[in-house]
Amino acid sequence: MVTPVLDEGARSALATTRFADVRWFGEIDSTNRYLLDEARRGAAAGLVAVADHQTAGRGRLGRTWVAPPGASLLVSVLLRPDLPAGHLHLASVAVALSMADACARRARFEPEIKWPNDLMVGERKLAGVLAETDLGRPGGSGPPAVVVVGIGINVNWPAELPEELADRAVAINHITGRPADRSRLLVAMLEALEPRAGQLDSEAGRSRLSSEYRARCATVGREVRIDLQDESFTGVATDVDDHGHLLVQTGVCLREVTAGDVVHLRPT
Q: What span, in angstroms and rounded, lies between the C-alpha atoms of 23 and 75?
């Protein structure tokens, strides 16, 4: 069921962007799934799906995303960028940077960005990003490539978190000491995303987006532990390459990390 919660001011602010069509659901299985289905029906780039609660929300590496109803901003955006396959990660980068800007604008704090796209406050996770793609039919006979990027950010959570989350999650209201308006946060994120979505379509724009991400990625320069499916290792994260892979110096070896869990180690 769609819940029309954006006021006239919010709708007016988004009317000049590609994100004017916002569909807000009280409950849905997955906002990413909804947009992928809508894209296959021909939905235009810029369609936005928001939910108060997801019954089958997903995170990176096949994990689930669980949040109390109404406590988080759960939003997905449909993009059709002119983007080479090796740079698809930049769509997620654009959304993560834009949500960090929205926090700075609306909540007066700026979360760190941990590789690949988690928003963190200290060692606690504030938001996670998941991108899913549909490249259409082979041979170019289908619609343009679709990238759906979803982000879930903890906004107004109970003061007392469940024991399993107490030392690794945080919400905006925990940081500011007051409730935050999810619709205002949404508008600020989409306004910040508008120019970045345009940058995805050109080589120069993608270069600027990559440079901004490297400058703001808190993982670069840190001593880290990388937890892979079959091993763990430590080293210093030296850079993020043009394909979004993390480069980690381990002694004389420079390792390329394409997926895995990253732990920022405290200086000893």
A: 10
Instruction: Encode pLDDT of 165-181 as tens digits.
Output: 878 899 999 999 999 99
Which domains occur in the chain, in start order? 8-216 (3.30.930.10), 223-264 (2.30.30.100)
CB 6 within 8 A of CB 50: no
pLDDT digits (tens, 9 = 90+) for 96-137: 999 999 999 999 999 999 999 999 999 899 999 999 998 665
pLDDT per residue as tens digits for the range 183-234: 999 999 999 999 999 999 999 999 999 999 999 999 999 999 999 989 999 9
Q: What is the pLDDT of residue 167?
A: 86
Cα-flanking dihedrals φ and ψ of residue 253, to 5°? -110, 130
**Regarding beta strands 48-51 and 22-25, do their DSSP bridges make them parallel or antiparallel, or are they unpaired?**
parallel
One DSSP character per residue, 195-257 reads HHHHHTTSHHHHHHHHHHHHHHBTTTTSEEEEE-SS-EEEEEEEEE-TTSPEEEEETTEEEEE
State the amino acid at position 35 in one-letter form: L
Measure the CA–CA gap between 66 and 75, rounded to whole angstroms. 14
Residue whose tokens read 């919660």: 5
Residue 110 CB contacts under 8 Å (≥ 6 apart), including other chains: 100, 101, 103, 104
